[in-house]
Design a protein that fits this description.
4-stranded mixed beta sheet, binds thymidine-5'-diphosphate, about 25% helix, 9-stranded mixed beta sheet, binds magnesium ion, about 475 residues, alpha/beta, about 25% strand
């Protein structure tokens, strides 16, 4: 007979304890522990099939020199933007987690993908664990995703799901969403860390053993984490985040982990009535609202997202603060980075912001993770504070050090080429020390202002 025991599990990171803890020692969050009853040994089996769920990996060991390379076959999602984030399409038999806020468009993206994959003569099984099949059918009609190769089932019991997979033997499996799937063998409630972890584990084993390419959809909690996130992330081959602002139509697909390709690639889409439309040149979209008569507090920065360069507008607004502690709001740039930039402006440039609120916003809803945005952010703040403008055909690049020095930037050539392509004629950049880099950059038709200090950059930017 199976033995039961009770344990307390942090619902944020999966940390386990024998007693209740107010604060999780692993992730530091408060009040995240929930009691879960678990069996000592869980054996999940299909109710109506003899499907053998092994470890999913071949046994035995061999010399690395004798290991035969698998021919990893890629299945195209039918969308260039999606394929690039995946590193060239889904790898056959891989397990991918698609995470995002509820309502952002995860089901839409995957249904469109399913339609494209069904055109490649592949069988798809779509597990609707949180919607009815007629709701999915309605969406499919809207997206033109009616296909005889797409099978849908309204099911959230893992044991039943396994039976259906065994019966249909699909090439591509979608589980929408993992938080709604439960195994009858696990006593904790649906959506708990134990359920999510075990169900994903079983699905992973099936995917590997039967070579079924699988996408698991996962919702994100309020704090921006996938519920039970850390426990899922290390299990799957690929983690994709689908992001966007609630009241805007732009959606960004970002690779967080990819065992078969580069991470930090992004794909950009627009949510329209007929579904998600790929945006092949996002810089144009992000800069389209920009006025030609420049206003103060605006700069453009060429940022690398994976292998692609995006031109992003950074806006800053400063004004005298009604609060005892002036506000600093950073949307799209790191908060700590903003504080550092303000400190440098104060100390090295003499800009007094101690009684001023500072707001930063990056247009397009993209979070800039590279420090190359420092100079653009600093110049946006400065021009807003002094109410002056920078020539609107200028891009700025450079990391700012604590002494006000401008540090070098990699992949300068790609960034400047993209800027030139979009009609920018001037670039404020760090001093180029490498001769080969200089040779290549001088061929680009863009006027360069090389600076080594923030004060020099300000002189060039304001033309003084
Ligand atoms: P959905 O894919 O259901 O989101 P998720 O699975 O992430 O919860 O998308 C829901 C939103 O997308 C909903 O607000 C309506 C919108 N939408 C469109 O704008 N166009 C479309 O063609 C579809 C199918 C959805
Ligand atoms: Mg959905």
């Amino acid at each position: 007979m199976a033995k039961f025991k009770s344990k307390w599990v942090c619902q944020n990171c999966g940390y386990e304890s024998f007693s209740y803890l107010g604060k999780c020692p692993e992730c530091g969050r408060f009040s995240t522990f929930v009691e879960e009853i678990v069996q000592e040994k869980v054996e999940v089996k299909s109710k109506n099939s003899s499907m053998n769920i092994g470890s999913g990996f071949s046994s035995g060991y061999s010399k690395i020199t004798e290991v035969k390379l698998d021919k990893s076959i890629r299945i195209s999602s039918g969308m260039e933007e999606f394929d690039r984030v995946l590193g060239g399409g889904f790898v056959e038999g891989s397990l991918c987690l698609l995470a995002g806020d509820p309502g952002i468009g995860k089901s839409t993206l995957i249904l469109q993908t399913a339609k494209n994959i069904s055109n490649q003569d592949k069988k798809i099984l779509y597990i609707c664990a949180e919607e009815s099949t007629s709701q999915v059918k309605l969406r499919a009609n809207r997206l033109g995703a009616d296909s005889d190769n797409i099978y849908v089932t309204q099911q959230n019991c893992l044991e039943e799901i396994i039976g259906q997979i065994d019966d249909l033997k699909p090439d591509f499996l979608v589980v929408d969403s993992i938080q709604s799937v439960y195994s009858a063998q696990i006593l904790s409630s649906t959506g708990s860390v134990s359920q999510i972890r075990e169900c994903t584990n079983i699905i992973m084993r099936i995917a590997k053993q039967y070579n079924i390419t699988t996408v698991i959809i996962g919702h994100v909690t309020k704090e921006g984490n996938i519920a039970g996130p850390k426990v899922l992330e290390h299990m799957v081959d690929c983690v994709l985040n689908f992001e966007g602002e609630k009241y805007k139509t732009t959606r960004i697909l970002r690779g967080i982990k990819n065992r078969f390709g580069a991470v930090s690639e992004v794909g950009v889409f627009n949510m329209e009535d007929s579904g998600l439309i790929e945006i092949k040149n996002p810089s144009e979209l992000f800069l389209s609202d920009r006025e030609n008569i420049t206003t103060s507090g605006s700069t453009v920065i060429p940022v690398l997202e994976g292998t692609r360069c995006l031109l992003l507008e950074v806006q800053a607004l400063t004004g005298s603060s009604p609060y005892p502690n002036p506000r600093r709001v950073a949307r799209g740039v790191e908060y700590d980075r903003l504080l550092q930039i303000l400190a440098v402006l104060e100390k090295r440039v003499g800009l007094n912001l101690s009684r001023q609120d500072v707001y930063i916003n990056v247009i397009g809803g993209i979070n800039i993770q590279e420090p190359v945005a420092d100079l653009g952010t600093a110049l946006a703040v400065l021009t807003s504070a002094r109410d002056c403008v920078i020539n609107h055909e200028t891009v700025c690049l450079g990391e700012i050090g604590l002494n006000g020095e401008i540090r070098s930037v990699d992949n300068l050539e790609i960034r400047l080429k993209e800027a030139q392509k979009l009609g920018f004629t001037r670039a404020i950049i760090p001093k180029i020390l490498n001769k080969t880099v200089r040779g290549r950059i001088e061929k680009i038709n863009i006027e360069l202002f090389e600076v080594s200090k923030i004060t020099d950059a300000i002189k060039f930017a304001l033309g003084v």
